[in-house]
Design brief:
single chain; 5% strand
Length: 172
Protein backbone atom coordinates (compact mmCIF):
# COMPACT_ATOMS: atom_id res chain seq x y z
CA UNK A 1 0.00 0.00 0.00
CA UNK A 2 1.30 3.43 -0.92
CA UNK A 3 1.78 5.82 1.97
CA UNK A 4 0.03 9.19 2.09
CA UNK A 5 3.43 10.96 2.06
CA UNK A 6 4.38 9.22 -1.20
CA UNK A 7 1.02 10.07 -2.74
CA UNK A 8 1.30 13.74 -1.68
CA UNK A 9 4.90 13.99 -2.90
CA UNK A 10 3.94 12.50 -6.25
CA UNK A 11 1.03 14.93 -6.60
CA UNK A 12 3.25 17.87 -5.68
CA UNK A 13 6.08 16.91 -8.08
CA UNK A 14 4.08 15.53 -11.02
CA UNK A 15 0.88 17.49 -10.70
CA UNK A 16 -1.24 14.35 -11.03
CA UNK A 17 -2.37 11.82 -8.45
CA UNK A 18 -0.52 8.52 -8.16
CA UNK A 19 -2.43 5.70 -9.80
CA UNK A 20 -2.47 2.29 -8.15
CA UNK A 21 -3.85 -0.53 -10.25
CA UNK A 22 -4.47 -4.17 -9.48
CA UNK A 23 -2.35 -6.51 -11.59
CA UNK A 24 -5.22 -7.35 -13.97
CA UNK A 25 -6.16 -3.71 -14.43
CA UNK A 26 -2.56 -2.71 -15.18
CA UNK A 27 -2.31 -5.48 -17.78
CA UNK A 28 -5.54 -4.29 -19.42
CA UNK A 29 -4.28 -0.70 -19.56
CA UNK A 30 -0.93 -1.93 -20.92
CA UNK A 31 -2.64 -3.88 -23.71
CA UNK A 32 -4.92 -0.96 -24.55
CA UNK A 33 -2.00 1.47 -24.86
CA UNK A 34 -0.05 -1.11 -26.90
CA UNK A 35 -2.98 -1.61 -29.29
CA UNK A 36 -3.54 2.14 -29.78
CA UNK A 37 0.18 2.80 -30.27
CA UNK A 38 0.50 -0.13 -32.70
CA UNK A 39 -2.46 1.12 -34.74
CA UNK A 40 -1.08 4.67 -34.84
CA UNK A 41 2.41 3.53 -35.88
CA UNK A 42 1.07 1.21 -38.56
CA UNK A 43 -1.28 3.88 -39.92
CA UNK A 44 1.58 6.40 -39.97
CA UNK A 45 3.88 3.97 -41.80
CA UNK A 46 1.28 3.04 -44.42
CA UNK A 47 0.33 6.68 -45.00
CA UNK A 48 4.00 7.66 -45.38
CA UNK A 49 4.56 4.77 -47.81
CA UNK A 50 1.71 6.02 -49.98
CA UNK A 51 3.27 9.51 -50.16
CA UNK A 52 6.92 8.50 -49.81
CA UNK A 53 8.28 11.31 -52.00
CA UNK A 54 6.50 13.94 -49.85
CA UNK A 55 8.01 12.34 -46.74
CA UNK A 56 11.44 12.58 -48.36
CA UNK A 57 10.86 16.26 -49.24
CA UNK A 58 9.93 16.99 -45.62
CA UNK A 59 13.14 15.35 -44.43
CA UNK A 60 15.12 17.41 -46.96
CA UNK A 61 13.43 20.62 -45.77
CA UNK A 62 14.53 19.91 -42.20
CA UNK A 63 18.19 20.16 -43.25
CA UNK A 64 19.02 17.46 -40.70
CA UNK A 65 19.71 14.68 -43.18
CA UNK A 66 22.29 14.88 -45.98
CA UNK A 67 20.73 14.61 -49.44
CA UNK A 68 22.37 11.23 -50.11
CA UNK A 69 20.90 9.77 -46.88
CA UNK A 70 17.29 10.97 -47.22
CA UNK A 71 15.90 7.82 -48.86
CA UNK A 72 17.69 5.37 -46.51
CA UNK A 73 16.66 7.40 -43.43
CA UNK A 74 13.03 7.61 -44.60
CA UNK A 75 12.97 3.88 -45.31
CA UNK A 76 14.50 3.13 -41.90
CA UNK A 77 11.84 5.20 -40.12
CA UNK A 78 9.11 3.35 -42.02
CA UNK A 79 10.67 -0.03 -41.25
CA UNK A 80 11.01 0.85 -37.55
CA UNK A 81 7.35 1.94 -37.43
CA UNK A 82 6.18 -1.28 -39.08
CA UNK A 83 8.32 -3.51 -36.86
CA UNK A 84 7.28 -1.66 -33.69
CA UNK A 85 3.60 -1.82 -34.66
CA UNK A 86 3.73 -5.48 -35.61
CA UNK A 87 5.51 -6.61 -32.44
CA UNK A 88 3.80 -4.57 -29.70
CA UNK A 89 1.11 -7.23 -29.13
CA UNK A 90 3.30 -10.30 -29.62
CA UNK A 91 5.83 -12.20 -27.50
CA UNK A 92 8.39 -9.81 -29.02
CA UNK A 93 6.67 -6.83 -27.37
CA UNK A 94 9.93 -5.79 -25.69
CA UNK A 95 11.33 -5.08 -29.18
CA UNK A 96 8.22 -3.10 -30.13
CA UNK A 97 8.32 -1.10 -26.88
CA UNK A 98 11.98 -0.25 -27.41
CA UNK A 99 11.43 0.80 -31.01
CA UNK A 100 8.32 2.81 -30.10
CA UNK A 101 10.23 4.60 -27.34
CA UNK A 102 13.13 5.31 -29.71
CA UNK A 103 10.76 6.54 -32.43
CA UNK A 104 8.91 8.74 -29.93
CA UNK A 105 12.22 10.27 -28.83
CA UNK A 106 13.28 10.78 -32.44
CA UNK A 107 9.94 12.36 -33.35
CA UNK A 108 10.11 14.78 -30.39
CA UNK A 109 13.67 15.80 -31.33
CA UNK A 110 12.73 16.21 -35.01
CA UNK A 111 9.58 18.23 -34.25
CA UNK A 112 11.53 20.40 -31.78
CA UNK A 113 14.20 21.06 -34.40
CA UNK A 114 11.60 22.10 -36.97
CA UNK A 115 9.81 24.34 -34.47
CA UNK A 116 12.94 26.03 -33.09
CA UNK A 117 14.38 26.65 -36.56
CA UNK A 118 11.09 27.88 -38.02
CA UNK A 119 10.86 25.16 -40.66
CA UNK A 120 7.24 25.46 -41.74
CA UNK A 121 7.12 22.48 -44.10
CA UNK A 122 4.28 20.18 -42.98
CA UNK A 123 5.48 17.15 -41.05
CA UNK A 124 3.69 14.40 -43.04
CA UNK A 125 3.54 12.42 -39.79
CA UNK A 126 0.62 10.49 -41.25
CA UNK A 127 1.36 11.06 -44.93
CA UNK A 128 -1.42 12.84 -46.80
CA UNK A 129 -3.87 12.07 -43.97
CA UNK A 130 -2.45 14.60 -41.55
CA UNK A 131 -0.10 17.51 -42.19
CA UNK A 132 0.79 19.53 -39.13
CA UNK A 133 2.67 22.75 -38.50
CA UNK A 134 5.67 22.55 -36.12
CA UNK A 135 3.82 23.22 -32.81
CA UNK A 136 1.11 20.63 -33.56
CA UNK A 137 3.72 18.23 -34.89
CA UNK A 138 5.58 18.61 -31.59
CA UNK A 139 2.38 17.89 -29.64
CA UNK A 140 1.74 14.73 -31.67
CA UNK A 141 5.35 13.59 -31.28
CA UNK A 142 5.19 14.23 -27.55
CA UNK A 143 1.99 12.18 -27.25
CA UNK A 144 3.72 9.30 -29.07
CA UNK A 145 6.64 9.55 -26.66
CA UNK A 146 4.33 9.68 -23.62
CA UNK A 147 2.37 6.64 -24.86
CA UNK A 148 5.59 4.68 -25.48
CA UNK A 149 7.00 5.72 -22.09
CA UNK A 150 3.77 4.77 -20.32
CA UNK A 151 3.84 1.41 -22.03
CA UNK A 152 7.44 0.85 -20.93
CA UNK A 153 6.59 1.79 -17.33
CA UNK A 154 3.48 -0.41 -17.26
CA UNK A 155 5.41 -3.31 -18.72
CA UNK A 156 8.26 -2.89 -16.24
CA UNK A 157 5.72 -2.68 -13.40
CA UNK A 158 4.07 -5.86 -14.63
CA UNK A 159 7.44 -7.63 -14.87
CA UNK A 160 8.39 -6.40 -11.41
CA UNK A 161 5.06 -7.65 -10.07
CA UNK A 162 5.62 -11.07 -11.63
CA UNK A 163 9.14 -11.28 -10.26
CA UNK A 164 8.24 -10.04 -6.78
CA UNK A 165 4.81 -11.75 -6.66
CA UNK A 166 3.13 -8.55 -5.54
CA UNK A 167 -0.57 -8.06 -6.01
CA UNK A 168 -0.52 -4.42 -7.15
CA UNK A 169 1.68 -2.15 -9.20
CA UNK A 170 2.05 1.55 -8.56
CA UNK A 171 2.17 3.57 -11.73
CA UNK A 172 3.91 6.93 -11.32
Amino acid sequence: MTSRVQEFTHLLVCGVPMLTLARGQARTVELLIAAILAAALLLAAIAKMLTFSEFERTLAASMLVPIWAITPVAATVLLAEVVAASTLLTPLAHLGRGLALGLGSLFVAYASWRWVHGIDAPCHCFGALLRLNPPLSFALALSTFVAASSLAVLSATQESGRLNSTSTGTIP
